[in-house]
Amino acid sequence: MKKEKVLSVENLHVQLGQRMINEDISLDVYKGEIVGIIGPNGCGKTTFFNAISGFAPIDTGSVLINEVEVNNLSPNKRAELGLNRSFQNVGVFKQLTLEENLMMAIENSEKLPWNWMLKSQTRKYVDDKINEALDYVGLKGHKKSLAGVLSGGQLRLLEMQKLKLAGGDLLLIDEPTAGVSPVLRNELANQIKGLSKDHGRTIVIIEHDLKFLFSLVDRVIVLVDGKKYIEGSPTEVQNDKRLKEVYFG
Amino acid sequence: MGYYFSVLIKIFISFIQAVGAHLSLSQAGIFFLAIPVSYSFMAYSMAILQKKFAFAVMPAFGLGLFFTFLLGLVLSYLYIRVSRESFTVLTAASIVGFEAFLKSFSGLTGGVLGISGIMRPSFMKSLFAIVVVSGFIMLAMMLMEYLIFKAPLGRQIRGMKESETLLESLSVSSAKVSRILITLATVLSGFAGGLEILRVQFLDPTFGGFPNLILIASIAILAQQPRVRTLFFSTLFVVLLPEILRFFNFHPSQMGHMRMLVYSGMLVVLIRNLSGKFKTNSRIV
Predict the structure, then answer these.
(1) Chain B hits for A94, Cβ within 8 Å
(2) How confident is residue B274, by pLDDT bands cut at 50, 70 and 90?
(3) Edge-to-edge, what's the strand order for the sheet holding A83-85?
(4) Domain B2-278 architecture
């Protein structure tokens, strides 16, 4: 059976100022797959995410989400096509409560009308979903608190729940373990696996913690100086001598 | 009794005008400073339609509001076409520009002498009737703002102030939210201008202007929280504050200047203490 392509990047070039950040990157990601992207600092990993999600201009090449070319679409239009992403600095509104953050994700994924709050049935439905999501990560007690009061790890857990509720079938997750304690990393890994296995999401993940990443992904891509350098299964990449060169010189 | 009615009307009208500034300036962080322009624009549109084109009061009000809506669309279009800084300067400059326009085209606007004898509708002949009508409209605006805060738009507005990037990633167009807010702020400010002109029945180029901006900006900055009651108490405080001046024996000609001095001083204190809340959206990508 032919595998369904969720993301397809062809010969992507991204130039910011005089510097070519991404050069001739091609990549296909299939439904339900978890793909990891690694590489030294400044190799263009986040710019690659920004180009896919519409926050960085594409110089040449093309990006297709669910077979639709999105080069000329704004970030919000790409999100409508099913692309959701997290951010290095945590993609959560810190001035909004946990409940409101999750509410926004549900509103947009389920296309709720502007007056849904006036309908008790919809209100209960949304409330149940929020309670379930917060309960899952042990944050139900903070439901009415501003997200800004949470620790770095808790914010990441909230962000994952937000991604889950946002409903997109392609998730770009940027450094999920940044600022997260080792104890919470396992929890995060389980959540990301759950998003793929239980909810059928396709995931592309940037991560510096290689142990964390290799335990999670089906395929790894190594970027060096904005170019695709190595691609393979976690075992293949781990055993590739060039990986040591990239990280240790 | 006339004094108390006038103060009440001032509170009601200021609240109606401040709703737009509260949503755009205070909650969304959009530095939209053309609020007095739409206030004055609506008043002049209405007065000109009445005086120069013999329109009846309510059709003139309705048509004036429609023109103000079109002005809002133009301003909201500008917001997405120019940089944020340029938009702030442009909207501030529009206050001076509009005043110059009013003074220059005296054949239409009455120039520095203005337009007098603006008619009121039959149901607003007395000051008390204006209190009642503007009070009802204020209550309607309170309900509208409450619903906005409870609706998705309310969360999008507050989210936009923190990060447009994050909002876009949730498939919400920040440009659309900004356009809605600027148009709404323009229309509400125009509506307030229309009501005020029905009270004073006289119009000259000093109507609105920077004093009006300072008044409304003070209310909006003071009412930082996304709550209707905060905006109401802020309006009460800012409108009533200069009334203290009445206990001092200032000459009537000085009162207007003293009022502006009080507002300016208050604005400096507010900005000094609350400026951290007005930081531009942080880059998170």
Answers:
(1) 162
(2) low
(3) A83-85, A170-174, A202-206, A34-38, A219-224, A227-232
(4) Orthogonal Bundle (1.10)
